Structure formats: structure tokens, C-alpha cells
């Protein structure tokens, strides 16, 4: 049986409340009629040509992405610009588009929490707790049940995450002891100076830039900072899609809900020197 999009929006806001999003973020419905019927939903990390084509060609009525297509202001949706072309294709196909971004990061089973769970972390709590909702917040920090080495943890990540051209990059000694771990799905170098991250043995995140990573590495050499593991932004958040799909299936068992297997990491290959 079809579900009205408006009802699905209510479910989504209950699962990933828009009120919990960061002030700079732009989650929510991008295009679509709340009165429309929804039978099939596709989840993806990014709203790009490949995932929009997949949604339309598979007959999806709603594409839910983690990253907002219109995060920053645009002055045109002309179809010679990729955002305009994607929006036009979705509208013509009667496929709505919705983003669940930082509002899906901060919930108890959000992007970082799923990554922490897949690594076997216990008693994981937010790095930056919400001031209003217990258990919510950015990132997660916790312990492994058994200590391991930095190299083995990196190899575990390579097994857990979908493969990408950039793989898993590590700053620290291969045999360094690690047990206390901080993770932040997506771009997380803004948390490098957080006390919870500084106290961890290793910090796992994505999009680490040269200067913040270099400064963190130098601090770690003084014994007061974590080793670093840098992974693909897309890969670190893709794991969450299965959890989100399972939740929506529980809430709306009549819906057909699929997760995109397409790799939308922007890098295609790497030449190792």
C-alpha cells in the first residue's frame, strides 16, 4: 500500500529530528509534493547524477540522501548546471528528494554510532553531547573490548568500509597500542582539539586537511594526542544507510526500500608513488 509523503516526512522527522541539525545545515524536503503517494524509496549518501538516475530508473517515488543537494544558496536551477539538471529530472519523474544530514549524524544510531558499532566499540558516547537531548551529539568515543594495534585497526576499517580509491590513511606507528577510540563520520577535523578526541588513542574521521592533521600529529609526538586514521567521507557515512533503511521498513512495512550500492566517492583511482 502506498504511503503519503507527508506521513513519511513525519516518520523521518521523528527518527532524525530536523531540530537537531546544525545551524548551517539544510536538511528536509528539497523537491516533491507532500500529498503525493510513495511506494518505493531509495537511500544514498549523495544526490548526484548516478543516484538520481538510479532512483528514476528503478521507479522510486522518493530519494533520501544524507548530503543535501542545496546545502549552499543557488541563484539558478537552469538545466545546464548540474543541480538544476538533477532537480528537473526528479520533478519530471515525480520522484521527491529529501536530505537527512547532521540531524541523522547526532541521533543515538546515527552515522558515527553505526561506524563505532561496526568497529566493536563499547559504551560509546557523543564527543560533543547535545545540550537538549541525552544520548545525542556529534561523533562517538568509546573503548574496544580488547586492545589492538593501530595497524590492525586500520585493516579492520578497510574490511568494514566499502572500497574507495583513497583507501585508509594512517598517522602513527603500525604497532602502537589502541583501545580508546574516537570516531566522526564525514569531515571531522573541527573536533581535533576536543578533549575527548585528544584523550583517545586514535581518532577516525574523513577529509583531514594537511595543516590540522600535521598539527595533531606533532602534538601526538609529545604524547598528548591521538593517532589519526583518515577514511573516505562517502564510505564513513554509507554504512548508516542500511540502518536507516531498516528503521523505515519497521515504520512502514508496506514500502519497498532499497539502499544504493553505487560508489559516489568523487575519486576514481590513485597512483601510488
UniProtKB/TrEMBL annotation:
<dbReference type="InterPro" id="IPR002678">
    <property type="entry name" value="DUF34/NIF3"/>
</dbReference>
<feature type="binding site">
    <location>
        <position position="66"/>
    </location>
    <ligand>
        <name>a divalent metal cation</name>
    </ligand>
</feature>
<dbReference type="GO" id="GO:0005737">
    <property type="term" value="C:cytoplasm"/>
</dbReference>
<comment type="similarity">
    <text>Belongs to the GTP cyclohydrolase I type 2/NIF3 family.</text>
</comment>
<feature type="binding site">
    <location>
        <position position="237"/>
    </location>
    <ligand>
        <name>a divalent metal cation</name>
    </ligand>
</feature>
<keyword id="KW-0479">Metal-binding</keyword>
<dbReference type="InterPro" id="IPR036069">
    <property type="entry name" value="DUF34/NIF3_sf"/>
</dbReference>
<protein>
    <recommendedName>
        <fullName>GTP cyclohydrolase 1 type 2 homolog</fullName>
    </recommendedName>
</protein>
<feature type="binding site">
    <location>
        <position position="105"/>
    </location>
    <ligand>
        <name>a divalent metal cation</name>
    </ligand>
</feature>
<feature type="binding site">
    <location>
        <position position="67"/>
    </location>
    <ligand>
        <name>a divalent metal cation</name>
    </ligand>
</feature>
<dbReference type="Pfam" id="PF01784">
    <property type="entry name" value="DUF34_NIF3"/>
</dbReference>
<comment type="subunit">
    <text>Homohexamer.</text>
</comment>
<feature type="binding site">
    <location>
        <position position="233"/>
    </location>
    <ligand>
        <name>a divalent metal cation</name>
    </ligand>
</feature>
<dbReference type="GO" id="GO:0046872">
    <property type="term" value="F:metal ion binding"/>
</dbReference>
